[in-house]
Every structure is written in C-alpha cells, then in structure tokens.
Design brief:
It is a single chain. The protein is 39% helix and 17% strand. It is of the alpha/beta class. It has one domain: 3-Layer(aba) Sandwich (Rossmann fold), CATH 3.40.50. α5 links the parallel β4 and β5. α1 packs across α6. The longest helix has 23 residues. It is globular, with a radius of gyration of 15 Å.
Length: 180
C-alpha cells in the first residue's frame, strides 16, 4: 500500500464539528496517511487563524476528502457550499477522478433534523464525481453526537482509518486515473 493524502475540510463555526475533525484526523494519521486539516472561513469565529482555509489545490492533492458540517436543518453552511462550488473546475478537468469522499457532522443544537444535512453533502460529492466511502457499521447518532463521548470518538477514529486505508489500497493500484 502507498501513503494516501487525506484532506479534512470542516465548517469553522461549530466546536463539535471541529472536535470530530481532529479525531478523524487522528484515525487517518494512525494508518500512516498524510493529513491536512482545513477549516472554512467564518468571520464570526474567534479563532479564524488556527487552520488554513481549504483550496482547490488541497482537493487535487488529496486521495480522499472528508467534509464536516454542523447539522443545520437540512442545509450546509454557505462557506462550505461555496468551497464545494469552487471545486467544479477541478472536477471538469478530471482532477478529482479517483478521489474518495466522505462526510461527518455534529449537531449545532440537539434534535435539529441533522441527518438530512449530512445526507445532502453526499449529493454534492456525487456531483463532483467523488467515490463515496460511508462511515460503515460504526454509528454516530444523528442528533446527539458528543465528540467527548468515547463511543463517538471511536466511530470518528474508525471513519478516518477506514477512508485512509481504502485510499491507500486504491493508490497502490489506481483503478481510475486522474487528469492533469
């Protein structure tokens, strides 16, 4: 297996989403993957400089991309949506061919219909041509994710490890080539 590049892009305005991103990065890193954490810009964030913002070049670099969002009544935050829209040129050039994609989310508030928010991200990943890697048998409760609970942290670590392992296997013998 080769060493995969994993990009984790998450919305800045939700501490629970950031906590999950860090644990997912831990799980991916444990496989030997190279991990980049990127946070979308959020002018209201008190600590906007903790991470670099995601770029198109980050997405092209990645063998797998995980997108994190708070669960907001069925829609993702505008800045995450704008980043996804900005990837369309890379998609049309074939630069995302063979890239794996996954999603994660934590509720902004309990019981806010968050499952549809995460599911809506899958539609965006399909539109970009990413190969979807679901969480698998691990389960993060739809409206009660608590990144401090060991059960949710274990599921997040498994998600990071799972996508990194799949990307490593695929990059060792690529099934789908990327365009320049």
């Amino acid at each position: 297996m080769s060493v995969p590049n994993i990009l984790i892009v998450f919305f800045a305005g939700n501490e629970a989403t950031e906590a999950l991103a860090l644990v997912i990065a831990e799980g991916a890193g444990a496989t030997g993957a190279i991990v980049r954490l990127r946070r979308t810009s959020d002018a209201s964030s008190a600590d906007a400089t903790a991470y670099d913002p995601p770029t198109v070049e980050d997405a092209v670099w990645a063998d797998a991309i995980l997108f994190g969002t708070p669960r907001l009544l069925g829609s993702i935050p505008l800045d995450l949506s704008l980043y996804l829209d900005g990837l369309d040129d890379a998609r049309s050039r074939g630069a995302l061919n063979g890239t794996f994609g996954g999603v994660f989310g934590a509720p902004a508030i309990a019981q806010n219909g968050g499952r549809s928010t995460v599911l809506s991200l899958y539609d965006r990943l399909v539109a970009l041509g990413l190969i979807i890697v679901p969480l698998g048998y691990s389960h993060l409760a739809p409206d009660t994710v608590r990144p401090q609970s060991e059960e949710d942290r274990a599921a997040a670590r498994r998600q990071g490890g799972r996508i990194a392992t799949i990307a490593a296997q695929a990059t060792a013998e690529p099934l789908i080539g990327r365009a320049a």
